[in-house]
Design goal:
Elements: H1 3-10, H2 13-37, E1 45-50, H3 53-64, E2 71-75, H4 79-87, E3 93-96, E4 103-108, H5 114-130, E5 134-139, H6 152-173, H7 182-210, H8 218-243, H9 246-259, H10 274-279, H11 284-297, H12 304-326
Parallel strand pairs: 1-2, 1-3, 4-5
Antiparallel strand pairs: 3-4
Helix pairs in contact: 2-9, 6-7, 6-8, 6-9, 6-11, 7-8, 7-12, 8-9, 8-11, 8-12, 11-12
Length: 346
């Protein structure tokens, strides 16, 4: 057999297309991660200002005109209200001006991301120095000492997402990428649900009682993990039921390539470029990371939107999987194994 014949036999058109698809996915991975994370800077960070009226007007105007629009300032009634808004995740920080002295108080919440809180502290050190004032920083929702840079919640959710799409991929390709009937689809979804419960519990126990990396209710993290894993798995099953094996690549595109860099893990959402900042809250890694941090550091506040996003992925993914399994369709024939022609013909 000649080299050309060997290539034709070994490299089928389908295999060539899959390799091209992998190359495209690789380039998108590099573009997405580098594009999102190579130059973080704060933009329109929700920020509160507590100050007397005559001071507040001038200070607000100065903050609104800072180069690059790093802040979205708004006046807050008093220090207690500022603390409450930070814990409710309505704002990411606040400046409390002391009209009787020259030292003001900066409130931050490193539990929402230490990079952002450090950036705010550096920014306001410079702003206050220009007015011959100083600041003292108070962390109202501090990250755990065992949670370096506040990244544990992000890594936990990434692990749950990886388990979700790998489990779904294995369930689907073990007997064909498209469910043959509704019964098989129900079995796959049921297996995925059981896996999600176990995976959610395992992640919550490892990151909490075992490693001590993340505070917060183990039960709440368990419930969140179950939903994250099932949402990602159901979406993967749905994509596979529509696109076949290519659906695995599409799931990786959504969850890994688009979802992880936009999740607000390494850098909180206000520090991401506009595209990633816009899509992050609507993808499972971003919704899961936000909810995990809320459980750990913000008393479970402001989780409704994230839980609705994850629930939508779970419900829509399950529905598409069941609908596609119910359609009458001819099952794709197995790809024939290439055989070599007889070297000696008789």
């Amino acid at each position: 057999m000649s080299l050309v014949d060997e290539l034709k036999s070994a490299v089928t058109p389908r295999a060539a297309l899959l390799v091209i698809g992998v190359f495209a996915l690789q380039m998108l991975f590099i573009t997405s991660y580098v594009g999102a994370l190579h130059s973080p800077k704060p933009t329109d960070v929700p920020f509160g200002v507590v100050a007397p009226q005559q001071v507040s007007t001038v200070l607000m105007d100065r903050l609104e005109k800072l180069p690059g629009d790093p802040l979205d300032p708004r006046t807050v009634a008093d220090a207690d209200a500022a603390r409450d808004q930070i814990l409710d995740r309505d704002i990411d920080g606040a400046l409390i001006v002391d009209p009787r002295g020259r030292t003001d108080t900066l409130l931050v919440a490193s539990g929402g991301g230490t990079v952002l809180s450090s950036t705010l502290e550096k920014m306001f050190t410079q702003v206050e120095a220009a007015n011959q004032r100083t600041i003292r920083t108070v962390d109202v929702a501090p990250a755990s000492p065992e949670d370096f840079d506040g990244l544990s919640a992000f890594y936990l959710v990434v692990g749950w997402c990886v388990g979700g799409y790998i489990c779904a991929a294995i369930l689907a390709i073990s007997a064909g990428s498209r469910p043959a009937n509704r019964e098989r689809a129900v079995i796959r979804l049921g297996t995925l649900a059981l896996y999600s419960v176990l995976s959610g519990l395992g992640g919550a126990v490892v990151i909490g009682p075992i490693l001590g990396a993340l505070p917060g209710s183990v039960a709440a993290l368990w419930g969140l993990g179950t939903l994250v894993v099932f949402a990602v798995g159901a979406a993967t099953l749905a994509l596979q039921s529509v696109f076949g094996i290519v659906g695995i690549g599409l799931a990786i595109l959504l969850i890994v390539v688009a979802g992880n860099p936009s999740a607000g893990g390494a850098f909180p959402l206000p520090m991401l470029p506009p595209f990633w900042k816009a899509i992050g809250p609507y993808l499972p890694p971003g919704a899961g990371t936000w909810a995990a941090r809320s459980i750990a550091y913000f008393k479970g506040n402001d989780m409704t939107a994230s839980m609705l996003v994850l629930s939508a992925w779970a419900v829509v993914g399950s529905a598409v999987t069941l609908v596609m399994a119910s359609l009458k369709r001819k099952q794709p024939e197995a790809e024939p194994i290439a055989t070599e022609p007889d070297e000696v013909r008789t």
